[in-house]
Specification:
Number of domains: 1
Helix content: 25-40%
Strand content: 15-25%
CATH superfamily: Glutaredoxin
Structural class: alpha+beta
Shape: globular
CATH class: Alpha Beta
Strand order of the largest sheet: 4-3-5-6
Length: about 160
């Protein structure tokens, strides 16, 4: 099984959530932000989640304030914004860094496994990592990639 399952992160309520809890599922990891031009993608991500969660898809949102300070709020305001504005029901985590020394270990791992156009560095909010049912990262998508265009790749893994 993949190294992905060795990681954990705090959810918006401050509880540790183990990636091991998602064993056997297709996982889409996304770094999110509440005040980004791409924030409406939360709606598309939620649509994908609702459509495929019963088949084994889980989407994990990781708020990040490293790009244009577009996630300035605390966990409570992040949770309220995601739910009120976009109806998000998939798991959302506490704010993390995705680049630099303080980057969350999960993102260090994902960037090593799936480098991007700018090397391994994440260039903006809403970079997406698709992980198969064995925990292997299989594809990385740019921030501009709309959630609905991921559907065929997700269906292949389900």
């Amino acid at each position: 099984m993949g190294e992905f399952y060795n990681f954990s992160a705090k959810d918006l309520q401050g509880q540790d959530l183990e990636m091991n809890d998602f064993k056997g599922k297709v996982v889409l990891v996304v770094n999110t932000a509440s005040e980004c031009g791409f924030t409406p993608q939360l709606e598309g991500l939620e649509t994908l989640y609702k459509k495929y969660k019963d088949e084994g898809l889980v989407i994990l949102g990781f708020p990040c304030n490293q790009f244009g300070k577009q996630e300035p709020g605390d966990e409570k305001s992040i949770a309220e914004g995601c739910v009120v504005n976009y109806g998000v029901t998939f798991p959302m985590f506490s704010k993390v860094d995705v680049n630099g020394k303080e980057a969350h270990p999960l993102f260090k791992y994902l960037k090593t496994e799936l480098g991007g156009i700018l090397g391994s560095k994440i260039k903006w909010n809403f970079t997406k990592f698709l992980i198969d049912r064995t925990g292997k990262p299989v594809e990385r998508f740019a921030p501009i990639t709309k959630p609905e265009s991921l559907e065929k790749d997700i269906k292949k893994l389900l």
